[in-house]
Amino acid sequence: MPEKLKPFAPTLFLLLLCAVVPKSYLVRNDYISAFTFHFTHANIFHLLANFYVIARFRPRWVNVPAAYLSATAAALAPFSGMSAPTVGISAIIFAMLARRDAILRIWNWRLLGFNFLLAFVPCYNWKIHLLAYLIAFIIWKVYILLKDRLHSKSGRKH
User: Fold this and answer.
1) What mean pLDDT comes out for the span 82-87?
2) Is the Cα torsion angle 108, 116, 46, 89 positive or negative in sign?
3) pLDDT digits 0-9 by tens, 140-151
4) CATH no. for residue 103?
């Protein structure tokens, strides 16, 4: 892969997954939809908007599996359910942003406030975004604390 495209490799990987997961998984009433809903979208505009955000954010490979697991855990939580199926990769985007915020040691009030405002938009699952963000933020904060503790015990500066 050319050097100029390497930063976009995780984005291209996620786009490929969105192209291959069939929408038929969403109509099923079992747990498989919790693992696949991220890769289906309501329409082409929904897909393009999500990938515009991902392309601007340029996630790193280390972020993709943790974000996927956080978004999937959020989908399995009873709090995040809706009457209509949830689609889109935006829960993964929220989880990836949580990693950045945990590393920068900030709490992104603007992002969370924007998410709460969208609670008034019909068929917008703001709850899954909030849960994915919180789960990923906690995971990365714990990881950072453990990493800092290990570095301080070994006497190394980081």
Assistant:
1) 67
2) positive
3) 999 999 988 888
4) 1.20.1540
